[in-house]
Write a structure and sequence with these properties.
Length: 326
């Protein structure tokens, strides 16, 4: 996942468009990274530069929790939605904290730049990817402890699980997909993503057993999980940083922040079906599988001041989009 500053820079001068979104939830100024949905409790979490932004989709209310944590990249709900495991870039930790009170239960050192985090139903463990130093940290969320590490070289990005003991991880600087045995904590395969430059977003399609990687050069790479082999490429938008799967309609959605689009991909056919407008800067996303709604975060940006390379976020412009897909 890109740094929070770089995410902002890639959302250059974002302006409202004829967006597909049916709702927008404003939040405080600042950078953002991964979006996560807790469908059971009707909540959306956005890891931010300061804390975690929360949207209650049932009431429309918003809040910021665990705001003592800085430069956060992912927030994973655990313990039946009572707590979050947050990957914290400022300290190289995975931190477990209570949503309601902000009380910190555990601080676990996991690497130089902990980024993506994925819960594995097969083991009940959470796997945290290091985007800078490489390696995967394995955490027991109940005990709040580090229980293992898996050696993997490269800038590790988005991850997805198949629920049966396999973890798939994009390696951004090597243009490859790693397959990991979560029970044995070992690497099973390195799969080159031919024609894919800078894979970030990743989704696993349960019906077709296909893995879809969103690539920085405007394509999605499709891999067969059954054979651990590359299948093909299909076009997406520019500036993607996520991919999400809807099992009800058997489609993968890829947001792209540079051109403000949401691309629908059929992973079984390796085919791009349609593109719809969202907003520029909306590059990360998560889906509520019960409703088919995709949630993405963005903001508007002003031209950079003299002597500065990066644009400044327009005050009061951060918001979370709610995008219907069915």
């Amino acid at each position: 996942m890109k740094t929070l500053a770089r995410i902002g820079a890639l959302a250059l001068f974002a302006l409202p468009s004829a967006a597909l979104a049916q709702a927008s939830y404003p939040g405080p100024d600042g950078g953002w990274d991964y979006v996560t949905v807790d469908a059971a409790h009707h909540r959306v979490f956005v890891a931010r530069g300061d804390g975690v932004f929360v949207v209650d989709t049932a009431t429309g209310k918003t809040s910021t929790v665990l705001d003592s944590l800085k430069h956060n990249h992912a927030a994973v709900p655990i313990t039946d939605g009572r707590e979050l495991l947050v990957t914290v870039g400022a300290t190289g930790e995975a931190v477990i904290g209570e949503i309601a009170t902000g009380a910190i239960r555990a601080r676990i050192k996991v690497g130089s730049k902990p980024d993506a985090a994925a819960f594995d139903p097969a083991t009940g463990e959470i796997f945290v990817m290091d985007n800078k130093g490489g390696g995967v940290a394995v955490i027991d969320p109940v005990a709040g402890t580090l229980v293992g590490t898996i050696a993997v070289e490269g800038a590790l990005e988005f991850a997805a699980v198949d629920g049966a003991g396999k973890l798939f991880v994009n390696v951004e600087d090597k243009n490859e997909l790693i397959v990991i045995d979560t029970r044995g904590r070992s690497v099973l395969a390195h799969i080159p993503l031919k024609g894919c430059d800078g894979p970030t977003g990743l989704a696993y399609a349960t019906d077709s057993h296909r893995i879809v990687s969103a690539c920085a050069n405007g394509v999605a790479a499709v891999v067969s999980a059954e054979t651990s082999s590359f299948v093909g490429l299909t076009p997406i938008g520019q500036g993607p940083d996520a991919a999400v799967y809807d099992p009800q309609v058997k489609r993968v959605y890829v947001p792209s922040g540079r051109d403000g689009k949401l691309t629908t991909v059929d992973p079984a056919q390796v085919k791009t079906l349609e593109q719809k407008p969202t907003e520029r800067g909306a590059r990360t996303a998560a889906i509520d599988p019960t409703t088919g709604k995709v949630y993405s975060a963005t903001a508007r940006f002003q031209p950079p001041v003299a002597g500065e390379k990066r644009p400044a976020m327009a005050p009061g412009s951060f918001h979370v989009l709610e995008i219907p897909t069915r």
